[in-house]
Automatic annotation (TrEMBL):
Residues 1-25 form the signal peptide. GO terms for molecular function: peptidoglycan lytic transglycosylase activity. Belongs to the transglycosylase Slt family. Residues 333-378 form the LysM domain. Pfam families: LysM, SLT. Keywords: Signal. It comes from the Bacteria. GO terms for cellular component: membrane. PANTHER family: MEMBRANE-BOUND LYTIC MUREIN TRANSGLYCOSYLASE C, SOLUBLE LYTIC MUREIN TRANSGLYCOSYLASE-RELATED. This is Lytic transglycosylase. The keyword Kinase does not apply. GO terms for biological process: peptidoglycan metabolic process.
Length: 459
């Protein structure tokens, strides 16, 4: 396989940018390690100067990314394997490119500001297929796949109302800061990438082991000590780099991504329902969520501290429509559960809605109830119609679930709960009466109440 990466772009390759295609990654399970902020520069100043000049000439982000490649190449069997995988899945490439088109310009801009290699903009293809809602079995979330602990280390808020691991601006800033810190630790981008996937502590241990054996400590020399996921991680990125560098060589057609900002930030002054925000921006709910995936609930809280992202033309529509909006911006408030008597059904009745609406707004599964001390969203009533949700509630609200307690025909359901002593006595009495009736009539009563079996204790 030829290594076609740095700063060389043929006219044929550029022509391919006008066709359709990129993908959705099946494997976005990456557990990211935890550490605090640190930063080190990456790309030589001379390369950056040339890049800045070329930047003005590029009409397509793919070409702009190629111009800034700066991570040394690798060429091995794993790279070839992953080139084959990606290049033979045009549907995957198409879906990924469609999602990337919203975010790629912003990521490249941020990489430029930090003098970082621009091929790092391709990393979300490996991590999440540019799906900001991606969630892995290791609890990693978002486009850059942050686990909760690392997210906290990089000040990504995670509460009932939002998870900034999915936020476009916050997660990108955190990911690039983390990668810079890792490069500062290892002085090598391939090892920094391995540490992003495997954890810096594990990479350090592998380095020390090879040093003690007198072996090299570059990525390929350490690969045999790494788990399979990490061993494939850098080759996957190299494979994508190769395809982006010369898509025609691999029979891949890349859809053009304009070299201009896709979105802009919009200030909001108070709580606003997600559906109302999308309506004012004249966007579909899906498109609105694609740019604002961090919001977990149907209301966007946070006042002026929280911004929303909108395509430029829709931002203008949002401002115009907001100025003439004559209705409430938010129809939700919070309620704290005080005791077991507050069931989903009773709350729905109290706040003039249905149990399904409350469950959907709070992501409460069927047959689950809410424990005392939990905070849930409920529809606003007249006394709270003009009040935003307080900041301390947003930051500290918790939702704890339990098996739902139900009441049927005046009797307490026994689902998931043992019978009390009084209930057992009633059951025995009912069985006794039924047994007497059966003896008198010569047949067993059809409505006999069966006492549940109890487990015998050993001894």
């Amino acid at each position: 396989m030829q290594n076609l990466t740095r700063n060389t772009v043929s006219l044929a390759a550029l022509a391919c940018l006008l066709a359709p295609a990129i993908s959705q990654a099946n494997d976005y399970s990456t557990e990211t390690p935890t550490q605090a902020y640190g930063a080190v520069a990456a790309k030589p100043a001379t390369a950056l100067s040339a890049f800045k000049t070329d930047e003005l000439k590029e009409s397509n982000v793919w070409g702009r990314i190629r111009s800034g490649y700066a991570i040394p190449d690798i060429d091995n069997a794993l790279v070839s394997k992953h080139v084959t995988w990606y290049s033979t899945r045009p549907d995957h490439i198409a879906r990924t490119s469609a999602r990337a088109s919203r975010y790629m310009f912003h990521i490249v801009q941020e990489l430029e500001k930090r003098n970082m290699p621009t091929e790092l903009a391709l990393l979300p293809i490996i991590e999440s297929a540019f799906n900001p809602q991606a969630y892995s079995s290791a609890n990693a979330s978002g486009m850059w796949q942050f686990v909760p602990g690392t997210g906290k280390d990089y000040n990504l808020k995670q509460n009932m109302f939002k998870d900034e691991r999915r936020g476009v601006l916050a997660s990108t800033d955190a990911a690039l800061s983390y990668l810079q810190k890792l490069y500062g630790m290892f002085g090598d981008w391939q090892l920094a990438l391995a540490a992003y996937n495997w954890g810096e502590g594990n990479v350090q241990k592998a380095i020390k082991k090879n040093q003690s054996l007198g072996k090299p400590t570059d990525f390929e020399s350490l690969a045999e000590l790494m788990p399979a996921e990490t061993r494939n991680y850098v080759p996957k990125l190299q494979a994508v780099k190769n395809i982006i560098a010369n898509p025609a060589q691999y029979g891949v057609a890349l859809p053009a991504i304009d070299n201009q900002a896709y979105f802009t930030t919009v200030d909001k002054t108070s709580d606003i329902d997600l559906t109302i925000a999308a309506q004012l921006a004249e966007l579909s709910i899906d498109e609105f969520k694609a740019l604002n995936p961090q919001f977990n609930r149907p209301v966007i809280t946070g006042g002026e501290q929280t911004k929303i992202l909108l395509p430029k033309e829709n931002a203008a529509k949002f401002t115009t429509n907001l100025a003439t909006w004559g209705n409430k911006l938010s129809t939700w408030t919070t309620h704290k559960i005080t005791g077991a008597k507050e069931s989903i059904a009773s709350l729905a009745s109290r706040f003039g809605t249905t149990p399904d609406v409350i469950r959907q707004a709070n992501n409460i599964p069927a047959r689950s109830g809410v424990k005392a001390g939990s905070t849930i969203l409920v529809p606003k009533i007249s006394t709270s119609s003009n009040t935003d949700i307080a900041e301390h509630i947003v930051d500290n609200a918790v939702l704890a679930l339990e098996a739902e307690r139900t009441v049927r025909a005046g009797k307490r359901s026994s689902r998931n709960e043992p019978m009390s002593g009084a209930q057992k006595l009633k059951a025995r009495a009912a069985n006794a009466v039924a047994e007497i009736k059966s003896r008198v009539t010569g047949k067993r009563a059809k409505t006999m109440v069966a006492e549940p079996k109890t487990r015998k204790r050993a001894g």
